[in-house]
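Researcher: Let's try something more involved. This one mixes different molecule types, so please make sure each is placed in the same coordinate frame as the others.
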Amino acid sequence: MDRNSRLGILLIAPLLLLMLVGFVLPIGATAFKAFANPEVSAALPRTTVALDRWTGEGMPDEAVFAAFVEDLQSPQDNRTFGALIRRMNFEQSGMRSRLSGARRAAPDLEAPYSVSLIELDPAWGTPDIWQLLRTHSNPYTATYMLRSMDLRIEPAGNIVAVDPNMAVFRELFVRTFVISIWVTVFAVLLGYPTAWYLSTLSGRAESFALLCVLVPFWISILVRSTAWFIILQREGPINAALLFAGLIDTPQAIIFTRSAVYIAMVHVLLPFLILPLLSVMKRIRPEYVRAAASLGARPWQQFLLVYLPMTMPGVAAGALMVLMLSVGFYITPVLVGGLQDQMVSYYIAYFTNTSINLGMAAALSLLLLLLTGLLVAVASRFMPGLSTGPRG
Amino acid sequence: MTADTAPLVVFDGVHKSYDGKVQVVKDLHLRIDEGEFLTLLGPSGSGKTTTLMMLAGFEEPSAGDIIFDGRRINNMPTYKRNFGMVFQNYALFPHMTVAENLAFPLRMHRFAKPEIAGRVKRALDMIRLDSVADRRPIQLSGGQQQRVALARALVFEPRMVLMDEPLGALDKQLRDHMQLEIRELHERLGLTVLYVTHDQSEAMTMSDRVAIFNDGLVQQIGPPDMVYDKPQNAFVARFMGENNVLSAVAGQVDGVSLRLRTPAGAELLAQAPDKLAAGVASQVLVRPEQVALGTGKDNCFSGVVADVIYHGNHLRVVVDVPQVGRITAHLAKSECHLCPSEGDGVQVNWPATAAVAFPADSETGA
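Model: All components are placed in one shared frame. Result:
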């Protein structure tokens, strides 16, 4: 390694460190959390060992019951047990009262426990509940990832679809990508002519027009989304203007609809399309279109065969940026959309902040990351100009 | 270039102004005959490129008419004009291969598929580049790109080819070579070419006729030897090649020559294409290759050698002549035995027929 490349590595070292600490490690930790399953083995260590010896066929023997009751009797902090209860209840509703009841009764239970425990609650006499505990005594689980795809593992180990009334996530992912793709399409349709117009300006007009694009870009997304919330609401300026003009009789519901989400998201993301596109368009000298004209191309052929292909790298770069940003959008749909317009990030926030199910939050994040990566891979395969990069 | 055939292109009193105030092209009258190689030569901002752009259809004349083949084409869109065009930066489409670039005009003119393939093949042969047919323009050298741009402008057999400083981006050796190649194509295919350049030696090498532009006006138009040897005004004389410029005041006409007097009192003999009245402040222009060392009949002065510069095929001798000013002479290598060195006293002389006198204030006058 020569002196220059050593110096180069030294110069980018802080950035690499930051990338590692702020990007690689959190994503790695999230990926780990999506599969981690420590609750059962932490709260019920003896039961975990005993269940490991059980074949899983029929009812477990007395040793398992004894280990279980011993675990319940042993003094442990409520947090560990609380995590177990939340975890099991997520897998099967009703487990909360069942486990709490068993723990409360445990000090007074007498051997043989395989009889006394079943007397306390007949549910302990079915193999299903023990199979469930056994499945989740494994420190790793696919449950969260499966649930993110509306699937679950039956106690016997086979993977099935969840009840239709609990299936939300597939639709959520489809909705997220449909909204993102439409936002990208609208942004391209609005941004391309705008960028072209900007590229034809020069001097003072150009600076002013560029400022019009950049000023909203400098304002935080939260502020811009809130502004749309105010503009679109029932008593907002749009409804007021329409009422005043006599075009409508009653205020229309614009806020909390899909349209509101599209309007606000396209507005927020438009600069990300215009700016890369503009930089590509600025570099295309008028000679190319003139050459096409001199060679006999009609105006629409000049555009379709020469200008559009030459600006494709800009379209691809901008569209990809908009697509990736909108897939992860949170605040704008939350502010101006209805419950049916929420995207994956909304549920990630819900599982993180409200239901404190970090496994689910991590699984949804990981799946979103994987699907976005897949989408980008597919897009760059079929989108002209993306893989080849700008030329000329 | 016979007078009885109708010219292919006529500019009839064409004016062009972008802002309504500054006239970029003023009252242009120009005719281009079929099969002619006409060069528009001038400094930047002289109106030559604007003239080309108007003929190509990228600009519209503010006044006057452009006639092509008997039809007025002022507002005709470029794609209907059927002119091949070569640009300074070649404007090869970067997203197409060389073969696709060559096929583009043929597709636009709706040639049949097999015809397109055949013509592209022949065009590649013509520029000796069949090996790079599937490469992208960016993978070619400047000279190769130049040849592809040329072939693309010719492949659909346009009625006329317009070239806007097509060799400006090449190095000198390649430029010299391409000049001959274009000239050769012009002769072989009988092309009508309108060529724009600011390089006077390029214009001399290639053209049938040269139109010298300055300040939006055609200063002189004619075959290269005419504009070089018989400049009609001081601008043309100074723009075409190197000149010694001497200030003097016009005196009496003496036979075919005019007598002038320098401020230091020396008498000069020169030709005056425009009549110069006695007492008019004038400029006398003498080409360095017309200046000889030694004594002569006309315009003979003594001076001191200020500098001798070696130029490969000739020497350049700069002589300070107290009565006249600073005179540069070109000396052929064969005359090297005459060559003085710095500080030597020498005599310089030039024939009266080789010096031209113009009014001093007529920098641009037509």
